[in-house]
Amino acid sequence: MKPVLASISLAGGAGGATKRLFRSLRALGENAHVLVDAVTDEEGEDPRIVQVKRPVLSPWNFGHKDLSVVRRYRDRKTSHFSPAIGKSKLVEHARALAPDVLNLHWVLGGFFHIESLIGFDRPIVWTLHDQWAFTGGCHYSGGCERFLDMCGACPILGSDAAHDLSRDVLTRKLDAWRGLDATVVAPSRWLADQARASSVFRDRRVEVIPYSIDLDTFRPPEADERARTRAELGLSVDQVCVLFGAWDGAPRKGIAILAEALRALGVRRTDVVGVRFGSGGADDFGIPVKHLGSIADPARLARIYGAADVFVLPSLEDNLPTTVIEASGCGAPSVGFRIGGVPDLIANGETGLVLDEVGDSGALAAAIETLVNDRDVRERFGRAARRKAARDYAFPIEAERYRALFAELAQGRG
Fold it and tell me: Is the pLDDT of residue 57 over 90?
């Protein structure tokens, strides 16, 4: 079977998930290919990773035409908004590969054009990594539910007009994809429910298939290995390490709320230190924080998870954060708000703590302190988190479920 996956990149959250699925399908013996906007030198050595060339490569912006339209809304929020206006050769490249199934992932940034799917004659599986595929252009709606109908008066755009860009984009999706042979896959139950309720996908088949990770890499460390990593990070035996990540500084990631929580915690505790990975500017956390920057090596990242005592995900909107899966694989308990796919990942009171008080820095500080205060609870939660990761997120669970879905759709068409 020949599935063709498509993602603007094989890096980051959605791109990394696409890369892991591609490699897992290959390991299962499938003739999988993947279409991307740009390739690294390493990726370029694999003939099954195919670059979709275009005049201007802009893998981390919205595409020039998209930006020019969005910028007309001067009161817009600092949030991604993608009208997918710019022309693309993605679907043309997909046709040339003659796939049994086309599996779309994160394809924005000028990499994909809504109308390009018209007339595509192979089954499509659309893996959602955010809400964009069923909204009028936003990637996370911030609680707005206008996508259940027709959008318009978009709060992300700062618009009060009923017929604005968001309505135009949603109308284009409804018109272009009406007869499409498309099945939706959501990694989290929350995103699946959102898709089922949307005007775009409410009549479509929607499946839930969580991400998977390499649990041979993301594993609990041996005691001496943990001690070495903590020493490298400058952590003493009596310090409690709170680990967190940051990617793009978007408000929905909740870093400002975490900073408030850690400042409050720092007033009461002197033994708590923070370790931060990822990109983003410096914040005042009120406790000593070691900034590691972006970490490309999974083995190094796993060692850092294994050296931590608590992992914190302060997101206010998210799908199925891979960081929590990775922390769980390494035996670290997690703390997060009850949003998106977080309740799928953290069993409250068993593998970590899930907070109903979304966005409340005081509640977050109290939850972190609960784990800081009790080493036995941290270790018990960490062992349970590892068991959950092994049960739900191990290779090749995800790939086997995709393979079965692809085969069913391809056979149904034949």
Answer: no
